[in-house]
Amino acid sequence: MDFLLNIDLSVLIQTISYLGIFLIIFAESGLFFGFFLPGDSLLFTAGLLASQGYFDIALLILLITFAAITGDQIGYLFGIKIGPKIFTHDDSFFFKKKYITNAENFYQKHGKKAVLIARFVPIVRTFIPILAGVGKMHYRTFITYNILGGLIWSACITLLGYFLGQQIPNVDKYLIPIILLIILISFLPAIFSYIYNKLKT
Questions:
Q1: What single-letter DSSP state applies at residue 45?
Q2: How many CB atoms lie within 10 A of CB 106?
Q3: DSSP conformation letters of 58-126
């Protein structure tokens, strides 16, 4: 927590600019090692900075949407080509097999809609396109939900930051609490699902 509080996220995002934002969202959306990257908080903060004139909001949403969609595409192809091997990957500091198990349960529960819904669930959203590839989901189905999910997720969270930045004076002073709240809300579906499954057993 102290580490988070010592980071000026807004300065970091201004420094990495459009290219850095693109690369982070691309990696978090579909690369095997990208699950720990801060997708939701990054989008919100970038939107907030756009409201202050640091970014063009239309270009930002377009860039993030493209990064999210192409990232998922890579994840899908990864799943088709070598995805099954990740089920035998040993646990490490960053990777835990339970991440795959949780994503697999999510995928089985929601089916093809998981590609869209998972956009709003951290960690799960990184592995869902891989599992869609492993399960050989029909490509047209995948790309449809991928585009919808990428657009809705990118626009909603980025615009939330943008509009709050316009409406609340000095909103940047409350950035850390807001980001922590966003992270908490992002994990609520997974928490509720865990509690529900525990109650069923």
A1: H
A2: 21
A3: HHHHHHHHHHHHHHHHHHHHHHHHTGGGGGGPPP-SS--HHHHHHHHHHHHHHGGGHHHHGGGSTTHHH
Per-residue pLDDT reduced to its tens digit, 2-27: 334 335 667 878 888 999 999 999 98
pTM beyond 0.70: the answer is yes
- Dihedrals phi, psi of 136, to nearest 5 degrees: 55, 45
Quote the CA–CA distance of 134 and 124 in Å, as a whole number: 15
C-alpha to C-alpha distance for 101 and 108, rounded to whole angstroms: 10
- Amino acid sitting at position 49: L
Q: Could you read off the pLDDT of 63-108 as tens digits, one per residue?
A: 999 999 999 999 999 888 876 666 666 665 555 666 667 667 767 7
Q: Which amino acid is at 61?
A: I
CB 31 within 8 A of CB 70: no
Helix (H) or strand (E) holding 19: helix 9-30
Q: Determine contact, residues 54/111, Cβ cutoff 8 Å.
A: no
- The residues spanned by each domain of the chain are 1-200
Contacts of 171 (CB under 8 A, 6+ apart): 48, 164, 165, 178
CB atoms within 10 A of CB 8: 13
